[in-house]
Write a structure and sequence with these properties.
The complex is a heterodimer. Chain A is mostly helical. Chain A is built from 25 helices and six strands. Helices cover 56% and strands 3% of the residues of chain A. Classes of the chains: A mainly alpha, B alpha/beta.
Chain lengths: 471, 410
């Protein structure tokens, strides 16, 4: 049993085994997972090469301003005249603007992805990283929604998600809700109370996108019984939750601020309860109630069990996670431990299809691949799961109904061949199969790998074997 | 803030990135040719889903409604100093980003239904799309999509092989999920994996994991069917190109003798909460891209155009009034389009509910007066020969009170 559990620790709860991992695991698999989540600051990613969101926002604004100036200049359409635009601005042949020395959204994101890749390659099991993946997707920002979100998506994960994945859910909701990337992605930064001073002055008004998704996706779920009136009232309550942009003081730029001038004054009723707090306290009170609502516990428990264990998890497991969430008041360390403690988490057959990200991370680890960030970006996009850029605020799904599709599988084969061709460091494929598939390696897959016509083909067959595709 | 999301999405210019980033997807179900045995007809039926809730009032503005300009403010195209519209009739105009669709309308090959909605009223994208795709009256009522159930009941003609679904996307949309098998396809980017490796994998799956084997075999077969697997098309950037490319590829597959006959295309990006840009900007750009995709379908399907019907649907509409950000929030009724050589077009069908506050649904949205299922039932009955009874029993359950609209098909 020990070796089966060791395999599950890596494949079901972690990022997949590297060649020496399964054989090298000492003690119980569960103890190893608990040790990983118990290491101090296990979830944080403080790479000195990464940029915090305040600085990133300032850089993006600087580039946006310079770009605007450059485009307004008559010479902008003529690349050869770019030199006259200023000492630093640069427009390349494709008309793409850059400021040398100032990292823009794309460079910021590449640095963030490079840091993740390094963490994925080196972390012993990767259970904490899988938790980060779950929560960052639960509070999904869409990089495609704007340059600012793209440039801040990685910082969002590091600042709003990682500090709380083993902490309190309520802290994570607040951190995510107040982060500029989320405020832009779901438009709350520009939602203005119609009766607020600013609303009265310029006729701007409400944008209910963030309020709706906070209820539907982040907390209680779509079936929790709220109405349009509740959404509208909550949207009014959230007006003023924004961040410093152009206005004074500059010290606020890129930081959450409560803009009193944009906040809808007066009490509001949400789901039958009156909220008459002044200012930001009103929204915080609603969020506290949403977090404490039993529907949130169910919503989170169900999603978490599906993500780690099975598309149709044992209801007893979901019940236990929901009870733990409620009893502990959303203590995510307690919920995570409950997941590890429940027999159903270990007993479910290894039939869950890996998502594209799970497939790619486990392949990189199995082959000890020196993949470049560009390769990761492109491959994830090809496979349909680009990092921090889901097609909707709902985030990516993780079920077979989504990913087990003909074209998706054909692309996986293409990807597997590509990676197999790059895996210079991987040893004998037959040994590798036994090392990373451990007790799951079937005689059929072993035979197929033994009979492969080349090393590259053997590695591709290993990556595409049913036991590597499912976990 | 949400201006130009597509351009910003292009972090990495690979073909599939770009299809995923712009949310352009195709899926379809195949059926044997000569489906109408002895009638010499071999009809094509496509659905285009616009995900994110398209603002019908900005696409087909009711320029003749006196309450329209005030509600829309700066978005009130077709009035006064704002953007122009292309004339449809004395009451409705068409957003001028769609000149080629307007051509089809003038030729009598395009029809617009206004103030249309599914039975869903609660303004969640995900539940709204669920209802649109399952054809049920409420969300989460079915694991199968109405087009898949349609594939199961379509007349089989001379053919004996089962109707098969085929999807030109990495994933199968709910509308095509179900018992009828579904294939998927997107324009190839990589050099396809070595045929020998694929064959070995198929052998391995056959012994060990038949589910994976079936799916992979379908994916490989579909790349061959599309015909350009060994010769990837030149990369092309931009939302318009991606919309068009998916449409052109679909048309090519739908023309094949043994190819699909019903198909789904899906285009994302219509959730215009801020800076909607109905005149110039985000919505206008999306409409121009849609107009291009429509043209690609009309051109590509020319040999079978007279037997083709394409519907364009979205999960719901948007608020009648603009919100605080020159955008619109989630609403209720919107427009649906029908086009194709078999459409009796050149008309706007609308039981117009009006735009006065008490005429709006919950004082905020364009009120629904036509059920999308009535449109679909009319089209499917008259174009594909599926009886009203079968439609109500199997394709759109609980729609007994929803009568098919007559006279949509020539």
């Amino acid at each position: 049993m020990a070796v089966e559990d060791a395999y599950l620790a890596y494949s079901r709860f972690g990022l997949g085994p590297r060649p020496d991992d399964i054989a090298g695991l000492r003690g119980s698999a569960k103890a190893a997972l608990i040790a990983e989540i118990s290491a101090p600051d296990a979830a944080l990613l403080n790479d000195p090469g990464l940029t915090d969101s305040v600085t990133a926002y300032a850089q993006i604004r600087e580039i946006q301003k310079a770009r605007k100036l450059a485009r307004q200049a008559p010479a902008a359409s003529d690349p050869s005249m770019a030199a006259t635009l200023g000492p630093t601005a640069n427009i390349d042949r494709n008309g793409k603007f850059s400021l040398p020395g100032v990292a823009g959204a794309q460079q910021l994101m590449q640095a963030e992805i490079a840091a993740r890749l390094e963490r994925i390659r080196t972390v012993p099991i990767g259970f904490v990283e899988r938790l980060v993946g779950f929560w960052a997707n639960h509070f999904a920002v869409q990089a495609a929604s704007s340059e600012v979100v793209r440039g801040l998506a990685g910082a969002f994960e590091r600042e709003a998600i990682r500090p709380h994945v083993l902490g309190r859910f309520s802290d994570m909701v607040l951190a995510a809700t107040k982060h500029p990337a989320m405020l832009v992605s779901l438009n709350n930064a520009t939602s203005i109370g119609p009766d607020s001073p600013q609303g009265q002055r310029n006729g701007k008004g409400l944008n209910e996108n963030h309020a709706r998704e906070l209820m539907e996706l982040h907390t209680i779920g779509v079936d929790a019984g709220y109405t349009q009136a509740d959404v509208t009232a909550f949207a009014k309550i959230l007006t003023g939750w924004s961040f410093g942009q152009n206005q004074k003081p500059p010290a606020d730029h890129g930081r959450f601020t409560f803009h009193k001038q944009a906040h809808e004054p007066g009490p509001q009723t949400v789901m039958g309860k009156l909220y008459s707090q002044p200012g930001i306290g009103q929204g915080e009170a609603v969020i506290a109630d949403l977090v404490a609502n039993p529907a949130t516990a169910r919503h989170v428990a169900d999603k978490l069990a599906r993500y780690f264990v099975a598309d149709l998890p044992d209801p007893a497991l979901v019940d236990t996670l929901a009870h733990t969430f409620t009893r502990s008041k959303g203590d995510l360390r307690a919920v995570t431990l409950a997941l590890l403690d429940h027999p159903a988490s270990w007993a479910a057959p290894a039939k869950k299809l890996k998502t594209p990200q799970e497939f790619l991370w486990s392949a990189v680890r199995a082959l000890e691949l020196e993949a470049k960030p560009n390769f990761i970006v492109r491959t994830l996009a090809d496979l349909g799961q680009p990092l921090w850029n889901p097609p909707s605020p709902q985030g990516f799904k993780d079920d077979a109904a989504t990913w087990l599709a003909p074209d998706a599988m054909a692309i996986r084969v293409d990807t597997a061949e590509l990676m197999a061709g790059q895996a210079k460091g991987a040893g004998d494929p037959r040994q590798l199969a036994s090392d990373v598939l451990g007790p799951a390696l079937s005689p059929e897959t072993k035979t197929a790998i033994d009979r492969a016509e080349s090393r590259g083909q053997a590695l591709a067959l290993l990556l595409m074997s049913p036991e590597f595709q499912r976990r | 803030m949400t201006r130009s999301p597509i351009r910003d999405a292009l972090l990495c210019p690979s073909r599939r990135v770009f299809l995923a980033g712009s949310g352009a997807f195709v899926a379809w179900a195949a059926m044997p040719k000569h489906s109408f045995a002895g009638q010499g007809r071999d009809p094509r039926f496509l659905t285009i889903i616009l995900r994110g809730a398209m603002d019908g009032l900005a696409v087909v503005p009711p320029v003749g409604d006196p309450d329209y300009p005030a509600l829309r403010g700066d978005l009130a195209i077709g009035t006064g100093g704002y953007g122009k519209t292309l004339p449809l009739n004395s009451f409705f105009g068409l957003n001028e980003a769609m000149p080629r669709f307007h051509n089809l309308y003038q030729k009598g090959e395009a029809l617009i239904v206004h103030a249309a909605a599914t039975p869903y009223r609660d303004r969640s994208h995900f539940d709204g799309q669920d209802v649109l795709e399952t054809g049920m009256t409420g969300p989460k009522a079915s694991q199968t999509g109405w087009m898949n159930r349609l594939a199961a009941v379509m007349p089989k003609g001379d053919g004996v092989r089962p109707v098969t679904g085929l999807a030109a996307t990495a994933t199968v949309p709910l509308i095509l999920r179900g018992d009828a098998p579904t294939l998927t396809w997107t324009p190839p980017d990589f050099r396809p994996a070595g045929a020998d490796t694929v064959q070995r994998l198929l052998d391995l799956y056959a012994q060990q994991d038949p589910e994976l084997g079936k799916i992979l075999a379908a994916g490989i077969a579909t790349d061959k069917l599309a015909g350009d697997g060994s010769n990837p098309v030149k990369r092309d950037n931009g939302v318009a190109a991606s919309f068009r490319q998916v449409a052109a590829g679909s048309a090519k597959l739908l023309l094949q003798d043994e190819g699909p006959r019903i198909a789904v295309l899906s285009y994302d990006g219509w959730d215009t909460h801020a800076n909607e840009g109905a005149e110039t900007g985000r919505l206008s750009g999306l409409l121009a891209a849609l107009d291009g995709a429509m043209t690609a379908l009309a051109d590509g399907l020319q040999p079978v155009w007279k037997d083709t019907v394409i519907t364009v649907l979205t999960e719901f509409g948007r608020t009648a009034a603009i919100n605080g950000n020159e955008g619109t929030d989630h609403g209720t009724a919107t427009t649906a389009f029908l086009f194709g050589g078999a459409v009796r077009g050149g008309r706007v069908l609308a039981d117009w509910p009006g735009l006065k506050p008490n005429q709006l649904y919950q004082n905020r949205d364009l009120a629904p007066t036509t059920d999308v299922r009535a449109i679909l039932k009319g089209v499917i009955r008259d174009h594909l020969g599926v009886s009203d009874r079968t439609l109500t029993a199997q394709v759109f359950p609980d729609s007994i009170g929803v009568k098919p609209i007559d006279g949509l098909i020539t």
